[in-house]
Amino acid sequence: MTTETLLELEHVTKAFKRRGTSEQVLAVDQVSLTVRAGESVALVGESGSGKSTLARIALGLELPDAGSVVLTGHELSTLRGKQLRSVRRRMQPIFQDAGASFNPRRSVRAAMFQGLRHLGSDDERQARAVDLLDRVGLRPGESFLHRLPHELSGGQRQRLAIARAIASDPVLIVADEPLSGADVSVRGQVMNLLVDLQKERGIAYLMITHDISLARSFADRVAVMHHGSVVEQGSTDDVLSEPKDDYTRLLVRAVPELNGPMPSRAYLT
Amino acid sequence: MLWRRPGRRLLNNLSGRVSAVYILVLVIVALVGPLVISKDPSQISRSVLKPPSPSAWFGTDQLGRDQLARLVDGARVSLLVGVVAAGMAVIVGVLVGAFAGFFGGWLDIALMRVSEFFQVMPTLIVAVAIVALIGPGLFNIILVIAMLSWPQTARVTRGEVLRVKQLEYIDVARCQGRPEWRILLREVIPNAIPAVMPLIALCVAEAILQEASISFLGLGSPDTISWGLLLHDGQQNLLRAWWMSVIPGVATFITVLAFNLLGDSVSAALNPRLRLIGRVRRRVKI
Predict the structure, then answer these.
(1) Under a CB-based contact definition with an 8 Å cutoff, are residues A242 and A252 in contact?
(2) Which of A52, A85, A91, A146 to mutate to test the interface with B (most CBs of B within 10 A)?
(3) For chain B, what is the mean pLDDT?
């Protein structure tokens, strides 16, 4: 199963117009990337390198100017209406700011039910929602159902976001900086939860992050983005231990290490 | 659930409380007043242009009709016009603004040009022209007022929709395979409505004033007693019977003021910064 390709981006290009001018800025330039079933791919790069734009294109939230996005054998740009919506449900996002990713007027129950529409009855949905909440560590699940998102802590909201994402049984989760909003103790727990869920359900991850050490501990493969293009990709060990590209080397060297030598001032440009 | 706290804060605010109470009293007077007051507002009598006295508290008009009975009866029409016209304007405005903001592109451009067209028209002149054209019925007046006041709501709604539609929970709903129109209806509009709430009361105030202006100019139906009609009659007897102008004038003024203050208080109660303070306070209490 691990060889099955879930998501395939081919020569994806996206340009934005700079405000007030006719100047075009290439946010994503000819990027090709694949995610196979059950694996975790980390997309690393500094802020503004185009990794979040690429994530939005992969999720089908933004259309590429050129290139193709193929999810489980379906090219997203050729799908319309119902078909597009059902293909999309196989891929779920987790965003950085869990606070903004919930409708403030909807209870936890309503948020969970949205992802559980494929189930037959409200009773089934309720039971599944409680199971999922328990699974992500919001215990007891019943006690959370009637709360509003802003009544939860940041860590609880991120767990809820994960529960909602796995509710529609996705094969792929695209996580855009899922941990950078959380404090250190929460990060470890959320990280472990994501890894456990992968083992249980065989979910593949496309993780967008600027955190090299996170990518090192989490990902099977790494792609490094710089100025809109992927400068290097391969297995995590290869890329991060023996980086071939100058930029990757700079990025890896910039990670502060305990006991290691102080990094020389390296400006990442 | 989210409404309870702003509601309470609205009543904690003095001008909010006073205006809400006044409007409530006015509505009760308009509903049950004509049943309590024994005099018929259209009954002509021989005691013409009598100043306020114990037998006729607010005096009588040029045909000897009781001004108190007419004022109470007119409150019904003024409130009805205000609420119905504002309601229609807000519904149209929210829908137009939401569609324009959410779908963008040529639809946005087209809808906003139409709303600007209605916005730049000199309200009173156009209202007078249209009423003169289609006739002075009550429903026609409501229609004209609604037609001229929806653009404001449309603009505010559009702005708010533009803000809400780029929030992440909208993206999440898309990824969950919700159709666009459902996202607009269930996720975007409910979260854009709070910005429109203060406008509703302001719209009512505006509509009451406009109805009064149209009737004052003599373009209202002469059979429908409204405050505008009372002012119209009063103006013709201004030097002989001050009470005919002053009393309905003051009533209109206070009512319009009350709706304006209510609108301001609603917007203060929904202010996100105040909401934060409310939340902190609540935590301290627990």
Answers:
(1) no
(2) A85
(3) 84
**∠ CA(B13), CA(B88), CA(B129), 5° rounding?**
115
Distance CA B143, CA B86 (A): 10
Convert the pLDDT of each residue in A71-122 to its tens digit.
988 888 888 888 888 888 889 999 888 778 899 888 999 999 988 988 889 9
Mutate to test the interface with A, among B166, B172, B282 (most CBs of A within 10 A): B172
Q: CB-based contacts of B202: which residues, under 8 Å, 6+ apart? A: B259, B260, B263
Task: Tell me the C-alpha distance between B246 and B238, whole Å.
Answer: 9
Mean pLDDT within B21-34: 88
Neighbours of A163 (CB within 10 A): 26
Task: Note if the pTM is more than 0.90.
Answer: no
DSSP code at position B177: T
Residues 208-267 of B with CB under 8 A from A: none
Domain boundaries, chain B: 65-285
Quickly list DSSP for B228-284. Answer: HHHHHHHHHTTTT-HHHHHHHHHHHHHHHHHHHHHHHHHHHHT-HHHHHHHHHHHHH
Q: Which two tokens stand for residue A6?
A: 């879930």
Single out the residue of A30, A116, A35 nearest to residue A72, CA to CA.
A35
**CB atoms near residue A20 (< 10 Å):** 6
Write down the residue that tokens 């796995």 correspond to.
A166
Characterize B148-183 residue by residue with b for buried, 16 or more Cβ atoms within 10 angstroms of its Cβ, and e for exposed: bbbbbbbbbbbebbbebbebbbbbbbbbbbbeeeeb
Contacts of A92 in chain B (CB under 8 A): 175-176
Can you tell me the ipTM of this complex? 0.86
Res. A250 pLDDT band, cuts 50 70 90: confident
Distance CA B136, CA B62 (A): 23
Tokens for A178? Answer: 């899922």
Tell me whether residues A148 and B168 touch, CB distance under 8 A. no
pLDDT (tens digit per residue) in B34-54? 777 777 777 777 777 777 878
Side by side, which strands form the sheet with A40-44? A91-94, A172-176, A204-209, A40-44, A221-226, A229-235
CATH fold for domain B65-285: MetI-like fold (1.10.3720)
Question: Where along chain A do its domains lie?
Answer: 1-90+170-269, 101-169
Taking the CA of residue A249 and the nearest CA in chain B, the distance in Å comes to: 34
CATH homologous superfamily for the domain A1-90+170-269: P-loop containing nucleotide triphosphate hydrolases (3.40.50.300)
Helix, strand, or coil here: B167?
A: coil
The pLDDT-based confidence of B56 (bands split at 50, 70, 90) is: confident
HSE-CB of B252 using CA atoms within 13 angstroms: 27
Q: What pLDDT is attached to residue A252? A: 83
Asked if residues A158 and A182 have their Cβ atoms less than 8 Å apart, the reply is yes
- Name the DSSP letter for residue B66: B
Q: Which residues pair with A74 in a beta bridge?
A: A71
